[in-house]
């Protein structure tokens, strides 16, 4: 990447809202999962890395919504936490019984939440 492109990337990251950064991270996770699904050859490094990234991302979301200083309404925080629990359970299920069809729910959740965060949902 050229230095100009790197500078632009840094600037766009610092000027994006937290909601947009979250949406971009969710879309990145969804892309990684979709790539695994589209190029399925069985459980491999790409599956592991995609699930790990998604799990880490959702761990951050769950930690944030369970923090008492979070200013979101309690019902919204509870819904996000519930989705996070579902995501974690689906991730474990995918690791125990790998099947590319099981990635659909994770991809859909990430894309739908990203759309909502970006004001497109």
Topology (SSEs and partners):
Blueprint: H1 3-15, H2 18-38, H3 45-66, H4 74-96, H5 103-117
Helix pairs in contact: 2-3, 2-5, 3-4, 4-5
Verbal overview:
The protein is mainly α and 121 residues long. It contains five helices and no strands. The chain has helices at residues 3-15, 18-38, 45-66, 74-96, 103-117. Helix 3 (45-66) runs antiparallel to helix 4. The longest helix is centred in the last third of the chain and has 23 residues, at 74-96. 18% of the residues are buried. The mean pLDDT is 90.
Total strand segments = 0
- Give the terminus-to-terminus CA distance: 33 Å
Radius of gyration: 16 Å
- Give the ordered list of helices and strands: HHHHH
Secondary-structure content class: mainly alpha
Gross morphology is globular
Q: Detail the poorly predicted runs.
A: none
**In what range is the share of β-strand residues?**
under 5%
Give the overall average pLDDT.
90
Per DSSP, the total helix count is 5
Q: What profile does the largest beta sheet have?
A: none
Helicity level, as a percent range? Answer: over 70%
